[in-house]
Specification:
about 290 residues; alpha+beta; 5-stranded mixed beta sheet; about 30% helix; about 15% strand
Length: about 290
């Protein structure tokens, strides 16, 4: 089989046939659909290259026409595909080598490859039988029928159609047991306490500031009581005549503010807000008062 693969007949040079056809339009223009049939490339791919390279074709009706010189340059870019060179994926499927490995070898100059008009990487079929996965294993010998079908591909002037091949069933292997990953402990956060000295103020102890605040709050409560704060007792409520909007009402350990008076002749009440109450439902309630 090795001898049969190494003595392959040269590929049918479809590139020369295409050049001879395009030479007829060297001094004229050729339509993009005809060029598409000759090269085996979609018309949309050719028109997209015109837009990228700033080429303005001559449009008649809905058909684009380009000079023969430009058509020859496009054929030259696609010559390896016309000569029957296999694509990167075809070689990978035949040899079992990953596409990334083959591409890296082409970039390093260890494998001859060229990019065609459709941006596909084409590899020299003469080097395919000598490819191997690594140095320790012998080269993988692909089937002679597959290689010959790629190299001796006849040129018909029509785009080649790719036949879908059945994919092999995946082989499931058990992954080796690995050591569980342990997350390292988080570093201690750096906490910087900003004091009055950082702002250029005199330093004050926390005890003094707390004592001053408590004393000030006590004095404000004492003044508020003197202004006529009401102590609410549900058993003997005070009269509504003593109430006014904004007046302070003390109920149990909470201080509230009268929001609204309800002077009902039979059931008078007041609406009081206790913003600091522990129960949210008790922060705004109606209290029954006397007439």
């Amino acid at each position: 089989m090795v001898a049969e693969v190494s003595k392959l007949a040269p590929a049918t040079d479809g590139y020369e046939k295409v050049v001879l056809e395009i030479e007829k339009y060297r001094d004229a223009t050729i339509s993009v659909p005809m060029l598409s049939r000759l090269l085996g490339v979609k018309t949309t791919t050719i028109n997209a290259r015109f837009r990228r390279e700033g080429i303005l074709p001559n449009t008649i009706g809905r058909t684009n026409f380009i000079p023969g010189e430009i058509a020859l340059s496009l054929a030259d870019m696609h010559r390896h595909a016309l000569k029957g060179w296999p694509t990167l994926h075809e070689v990978s499927r035949l040899t079992g080598i990953k596409t990334g490995t083959l591409k890296a070898r082409c970039e390093k100059g260890k494998l001859e490859g060229y990019v065609d008009l459709t941006k596909r990487l084409r590899i020299n079929p003469a080097e395919v039988p000598h490819l191997s996965i690594d140095r320790s294993t012998p080269p993988v010998q692909p089937a002679s029928r597959s290689i010959s079908s790629m190299v001796n591909r006849p040129f018909s002037g029509e785009p080649a159609r790719r036949v879908a091949q059945p994919k092999p069933a995946p082989e499931f292997t058990r992954a080796p047991a690995s050591t569980p990953f342990v997350l390292p402990p988080a570093p201690e956060p750096r906490v910087q306490i900003i004091t009055a000295r950082d702002y250029g103020l005199a330093a004050r102890t926390n005890g003094t500031a707390t004592a001053d605040f408590s004393e000030k709050k006590h004095k404000e409560k004492h003044k508020e009581r003197k202004r006529g704060a009401l102590d609410y007792n549900p058993e003997s409520p005070f009269s509504i005549s003593q109430c006014s909007v904004g007046k302070t009402v003390k109920y149990e350990k909470y201080d509230g503010t009268i929001l609204k008076l309800i002077p009902d002749p039979f059931n008078p009440a007041i609406k009081v807000a206790f913003p600091n109450h522990d129960e949210p439902l008790m922060r705004e309630i109606l209290l029954r008062v006397a007439r």
